[in-house]
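User: I'll paste a sequence; please echo it back and then give the predicted structure.

Assistant: Echoing your sequence first, then the prediction.
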Amino acid sequence: MPSSYQASSLAERAAGISARIDRLPSVATLWRLIALLSIGGFFELYDLFQTAYISPGLFQAGIFQKGAEGAFGVSDQAAFAASTFLGLFLGASLLSPIADRFGRRAIFTFALIWYTAATVMMGLQSTAMGIILWRFVVGIGLGIELVTIDTYLSELVPKHLRSAAFAFAFFVQFLSVPAVALMSWWLVPQAPFGVAGWRWVVLASAVFALFIWWLRKRLPESPRWLAQQGRLDEAEQALSALEARCAHDLGRPLPKPVAQSIGVEAKGRFTDIWQPPYGRRALMLIVFNIFQAIGFFGFGNWLPALLNGQGMETAHSLGYAFIITLAYPLGPLLCMGLANRLENKWGIVGSALLTVIFGSLFAYQDSAFGLVACGVMVTFANAWLTFSYHAYQSEMFPTHIRARAVGFCYSFSRLSTVFSSLLIGFFLDHWGTPGVLGFIVASMAIVMLTIALFGPRTRNLALEDIAH
């Protein structure tokens, strides 16, 4: 065991590394790193949002069935969505702690390989059971990856850029949603070279594998994580290289860091999540994640079906869905300037309120213009909500348990969606689009109350100050 003097020296060096990160300026080098992480997230969301857009093709091909004729006695689309989120739950809750043990960079790469290989296998299946089973495996890889990206990003950027960095990251990531919608609109009704269009949409993920090693070589390990592991020499080497590039971009020496005081805890335990003040935060985030997932995925994953429920034909619903999905990347892009000036908790509350208002209006539209306009506003609100809460929950916990705690709390959104996917399928069959929208609106009202009443302030605070 290190002596008290050695421990104090380690803590002092670790605090210096955090202070040096927080004084980094907004320069091209940092935004390139944010963009690289965002590209990894692009692959994830492309895969995740396939649920809504390839399902019509699977029904047309006779692979998926509706109602009790499905593989598990429910609609195969509902089972497909449920298996995705069951995998996401297991990946986020059980496997995300390995990013605290082995590092952000290694797990980022590992999870990309996992989900890409599993997606290719899913695209080769010809039965509903085979597709649903491989979709579950895909979900496990996605669950690890999405948590790792959040922790990685929050640790690499300085405090004055955190919210804007998450906004930009989700602008890039959400470009995947109109991409998969456009490909589905174009390919799902066709069979190029005799291969069903939905398979082309799925197998396009294989191309992403070509970028994995290119991405990995350009990303440093998180200096904050290295410091918390006691690997101070490696942390200082990685950070010094980053500082040199930032100073070159800035054209002058970097400002002096402001001293911070933190401890070094190399190993995090599950019980650490429940120590004050983290236990209260964890409970708040669990309730929040259960209900935000209903609002976000209830609309996003079922958008073509909701449009069908309002009288739109499949071909038209896919076209309108593509137009609506353009609001996903535009939401974070338009909010970037506001992100660092607004508390994340109030961004979450405001975006949830927009979903309540326009989700209610969507249920009463019968014209294409009304459906698209309300759909765009709900999607805009969901995109704003997403980057706000991803930044917010990654701020709640210290570095040594960040991936473990975020993964555990976040996993409840995945577990929630397993059951809400089945409920939404039931509501859609029995009460149509208004029934589904009522469920979504009630869930987002709970989101607003939970964060407004119990969420702490975090704007422009160092991660270590928020944690302690």
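The chain has a mean pLDDT of 86. The chain has one domain: 10-254+270-467.
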